[in-house]
Amino acid sequence: MPELPEVETIRRQLDVLLPGRSFTAIETRWAKSLTGRGRPVGDVLARPVTRVWRRGKVLGLDFDGGVTLLVHLRMTGQLVLGPGDRPPPDVTGTRVVLHLDDRSRLHFNDQRKFGRMVVVPTSESAADPLLARMGPEPLDPGFDPEVLRAILRRHPGLRLKSVLLDQGSIAGIGNIYADEALWQAGLHPERRSGAVRRPGVEALHHGIVTVLSEGVARGGSTMRDYVDSRGDRGGYLEVAAVYGRTGQPCRRCGTPIVKSVVVGRGTHLCPSCQVAPRRRRTG
11, 39, 55, 57: which is the annotated catalytic residue? Predict the structure, then answer.
């Protein structure tokens, strides 16, 4: 968290405001939050932003002259753009402040300090450790049921939730939208990928695209820390089917939603709509 819909929401907002603008100064309040790999941090100054893009959960800002700023929000990161005449939105958690030429400021807030901003050469950005070996984008037109089927067949012994959370398999899906997509498809998160037949693959593909698209449309999900670039909370959890709804009735069948642990992650599901796979008998 934030996942693809949250980062895409921020990207769309900043892509309207930042291209053509340039940074005039940088305040670094936590040294590890902003570093350079192949280009010094100061190379982002006095260069117009040319593009704001996203890959998986990573945001990218391209600058004139072949410089890119990669931003990974990780668990508690926020990227908030505000006027320069107002105090930072989160003084205690602000790690980096980027001053723009119109006197506005881009605040990188990160309570737990796991997020990262990295300045890299644009030509090498795709190979950066933050982006390397990332799987296909699930909202791209080329991500169809056959692509998903091939991914599942490569990992026949893994649980479905494990594959969905693996950024090397599919980019951008995290805990919230994995649970939601599996509910949409009527598949149990512990089902082995190799046991899913073609109708299940098609249902899962539809579920992934549906929940991610709805997440983007509603500005993402806010459990606690996430806000968009305007400081607003996401609204997806208001319509979520299972995530965060333990004990509440399933929106499809009325059975109470349960929470368990699958692949080490808190997992929400409907025990009636998502029947658990049979355990193999031993002995």
Answer: 57
- Kindly give, in sequence order, each residue whose CB lies less than 8 Å from that of residue 219, ignoring residues fewer than 6 positions away: 5, 9, 228, 232, 233, 234, 235, 236
How many beta carbons lie within 10 A of that of residue 52, not counting itself? 20
Is 161 part of the annotated catalytic residue set?
no
Residue 93 has, within 13 A of its CA and on its CB side, a CA count of: 19
Confirm if 4 and 226 have CB atoms less than 8 A apart: no
Tokens at 182, concatenated: 């599996």
Across the beta sheet with 23-28, what order do the strands follow?
23-28, 94-100, 105-110, 77-82
32 is catalytic: no
Q: What is the pLDDT of residues 91-102, one digit of tens each?
A: 569 999 999 999
**Residue of 264, 119, 110 lying closest to 178 (CA atoms):** 264
Structural domains of the chain ordered from first start: 4-127 (3.20.190.10), 145-269 (1.10.8.50)
C-alpha 276/C-alpha 51 separation (Å) is 45
For 102-131, write each residue's pLDDT tens digit.
999 999 999 999 999 999 999 999 999 999
